Amino acid sequence: MPSKKERIRASNLKKPSRSPVGAPLEAINDQVIKNFKKDGVVMLENILHPEWLLLLELGLQRVLNNSSQEMHLFFKGQEGEFIETIRNFEIIPEIRRLIYDSPIADLIGKLIGSENLWLYSDEFFIKQGGNSARTPWHQDTPFWPTSGTQIASAWISLDPLTSNECLEYVAGSHHGLLYDGFNPAKVNEDPTLPHYGEGFPPLPDVENNREAFDILSWEINPGDVIFAHPSVLHGGGPTGPTSQRRAITIRIYGDDICYDSRPETKPTVPLTPGLSLSLTPGDPLRSPWYPRIRPIPAHLQAEWI
Ligand SMILES: O=C(O)CCC(=O)C(=O)O
Predict the structure, then answer these.
(1) 131's torsion region: left (phi>0), alpha (psi -120 to 50) or beta?
(2) How many CA atoms, within 13 angstroms, populate the side-chain half-sphere of residue 101?
(3) What's the CA-to-centroid distance between 235 and ligand 1, angstroms?
């Protein structure tokens, strides 16, 4: 039987059949901003033009074909194995174009109320080949050297999904405690093992107590985008024997995000050697690790003038 990696094939670059909204920024109205503040997550239907999905799919193909991109395997060697790749922006031109040219950054800017925007990271989660496992419940910010509120992740799936296969969120949990993360290297052993083992309370067992949490998820079609605050507890549904979920999450922040320290037992994610030597907690998070996206820097604007 071919390995999961061998079974991964580029899809047919089919265009979604729905026509997208003409003026995406208009979808972010006062009610959407209010819901985002309250729940920490909103889903906007049909917000991305098929051209942007095509660009994303081409970027994904390059990632899968590009041996220089590091593939992190969750549940490595097990039936539920899936791939994660991070910082595709730095080596994949299509992802770079998507982040600068598509409305994603401006949508996040309007949602978080910041005209200045920087990229924290982008990350593919690729569940293909059948029966990929759940992404463990977690918050992102315990893994990140950040504090502040003006930040959001745009989660975009190239595949239609049932609400069971979608990413799921505990509504309003970004207002509560920050918990220790799970340990990505040990998900095979136990997806609730702590990342730092100090400094944060242990994660609640959301999956085994689902009825105790206000869990939001959506049926997703290509072109829909979920915007979430990275401190919201979230976990990814598994895929079935015949389904796939090829998703990217693009994390962008605004003015009030500062550098913050984390327990020293583990590095923050993704690795940023040198960052702690140039910033002290409370400094605005400014570093070449986090490129400015809006306003577009003058040297980049000059490329198309
Ligand atoms: O897509 C997934 O399974 C996980 C995504 C995620 O954790 C995120 O967007 O922060």
Answers:
(1) left
(2) 17
(3) 7
- What are the tens digits of pLDDT across the range 251-266? 999 999 999 999 999 9
Provide the H-helix boundaries in 40-135.
50-65, 93-101, 104-112
Identify whether 189 is part of a domain.
yes
Closest ligand 1 atom to the C-alpha of 125?
1
pLDDT of 6? 44
Say whether 186 sits in a helix, a strand or coil: helix
Examine residue 55 and state whether it is found in any structural domain, yes or no.
yes
* Cα of 302 from ligand 1 centre, angstroms: 34
pTM given for the model: 0.93
Does the beta carbon of 235 sit less than 6 angstroms from any atom of ligand 1? no
Residue type present at position 288:
P
Q: What domain count does the chain have? A: 1
Q: From ligand 1's centre to the CA of 298, what distance in Å?
A: 32
User: Residue 75 sits in a domain of what CATH number?
Assistant: 2.60.120.620
| Gap between the terminal Cα atoms of the chain | 52
**Atom in ligand 1 nearest the alpha carbon of residue 247:** 1
- How much is the average pLDDT of 272-280? 96
For a ligand 1 pocket test, name from 161, 164, 234 the mutation site with the most ligand atoms within 8 angstroms of its C-beta.
234
**Structural domain contains residue 75:** yes
Would you say residue 125 lies in a domain? Answer: yes
Q: Kindly state if the Cβ of 144 falls inside 6 Å of ligand 1.
A: no
What is the 121 CA–ligand 1 centroid distance (Å)? 12
Rounded distance between C-alpha atoms, residue 287 and residue 284, angstroms: 9
258-259 and 82-86: which strand pairing? unpaired
**Pocket of ligand 1 contains residue 128 by CB under 6 Å:** no
Using CA atoms of 97, 98, 100, 105 in order, give the dihedral in degrees to the nearest 10: -170
Structural domain for 263, as ranges: 30-304
State the distance from the centre of ligand 1 to the C-alpha of 249, rounded, in angstroms: 7
